[in-house]
Amino acid sequence: MALIEAALSAAAAARPVLSAAARRAVPLSSCAAYSAAAASSSGGDIEDSPLLPMPRRGSLLARFRDRRALAVTDITATEWCEKQMEFVLEHGKPERTQAMKAGSERHAQLEQERTADLLRFALEQVIERVDVTIRSAEELWAVKLMNFIVGANQLMLEGITREIPVIGVVEGSWMIGVIDELRMPPDGISVHPILVDTKTRYKPTVPSEAQKRNGRLQVMCYKYLWDNLISEKFPAENFFSYFDLDSSYLLSDDIKQYIRLLGLNAKTLEDVLKYFKVTCHTLPRSQEQLLLRYELQADHSLLEEYQFSYDARWFKDQIQEVLSFWQGAREPKFVTEEERWKCSFCKFANNCPINMLPHQDVAD
Ligand code: SF4
Prior knowledge:
Elements: E1 25-26, H1 33-39, H2 60-64, E2 70-71, H3 72-80, H4 82-91, H5 98-122, E3 128-129, H6 137-158, E4 160-170, E5 173-183, E6 194-201, H7 209-231, H8 236-242, H9 253-261, H10 269-280, E7 289-296, E8 302-309, H11 312-326
Parallel strand pairs: 2-5, 6-7
Antiparallel strand pairs: 1-3, 4-5, 5-6, 7-8
Iron/sulfur cluster (SF4) binds next to helix 4.
Family: Belongs to the EXO5 family.
Organism: Oryza punctata
GO biological process, one term: interstrand cross-link repair
């Protein structure tokens, strides 16, 4: 199994030049099974599906996510406080706190552990190292799609994968995210992987309901995107047109070499998309039960494991609410009276009109 993570976090619309390098161990045999399936796909199988409406002029979506997908983190940040999201878009993100940095480091550590697992797994196999330079949006998407294929292979072969990218259309808007962890159930009976998200906490306290609600929305986004990739036709035509991508774009030798190392043969972005679609249709849907884990930053001890069920109705309502903000259908909302405590952690509090309003303090 293998991973390349060249510029995964870079904005999809950042074109034309993105330069990133990734060094990862790559076995030669893991994806060979896809060759025949993808080769059998006809050349012109991009589905005809109605184009999605373009974002309303002047909306936040049009101004800040033009030809880009909304990130799952955009959704959760909006759910946290719409006014704060607007401040971030208009003025940029405030400096990251120590707690935020520690959280990112923990994710990086979990990802490193996965890479170590991969290396152990790959020891018995032929290993090559590849440098991948990203030159265009088409190549960036090719790498993202390959990362999905690699992560999906790891899940099916080893029973666990981390940091796997997912993309899809949710309530009419393109959305992208990176699933923290997918693991197969330990019972060996169920074939449906469990979606897990690990959050780190600075203090040894259990999360508030607002934090849990935000976490639930995040993991439900991942479930929706994962299950949708598996059960629905990928809207390829929309994908190419919305992101302004050339489906017949010829990938660089670097990327083609990496893809060959995985046992695949792709020359264009469309070729990679075919492998991606074949992969999606071989995967199982995720479990209805989702898991949030809360760890203490200092020693990674477990504070709480919180299991909950996917709620399609609730999820749809939440997404529609968030999208109405992004689409400019209404003014941004402030936090509710019960959640005014969030304002004491907000870098924009001094400039926020909510502070002109009377309020009662609510403890965290
Ligand atoms: S001060 Fe409160 S209401 Fe205003 S942006 Fe910050 S969190 Fe939102």
